[in-house]
# Entry
Amino acid sequence: MRNAPRMGVYRFEDLRVWQAAKRQCDRVGELIKRPQFKEDKRLSDDLNGASISVMNNISEGFVRRRDKELLQHLRYAAASNAEVLSSFHAAEGRGYLTKTEAVDLFAENNAIGKMLRRFRESVERSSGSKD
# Structure
């Protein structure tokens, strides 16, 4: 069990990856206010839920303070982040996003994926575990 903060971070809100996930979630919140998203309730609900899940899994894993649980929640966050990306592709394909918006959203999402991967690898190195 870890008693010390991770990388000098005491609160999950201070994690850069959580901050990036929150920005993505905030952007999703703005997107789903658009009329086309309101009419496509399934896509809107899936996108909203997945973006919230990314943030929530990072925070939940962080506060549990056990490497094994943190790693599991980081995997959940990565899976939810992939769901967000897939939903962005669906939204682009349906014409709900401009090409410029889609490229920007894809890049932001991919950056979060890389941050999650680096965080997970760092925890694995420090714990000597790949679980």
In short: DSSP finds five helices and no strands in the chain. The chain has a mean pLDDT of 93.
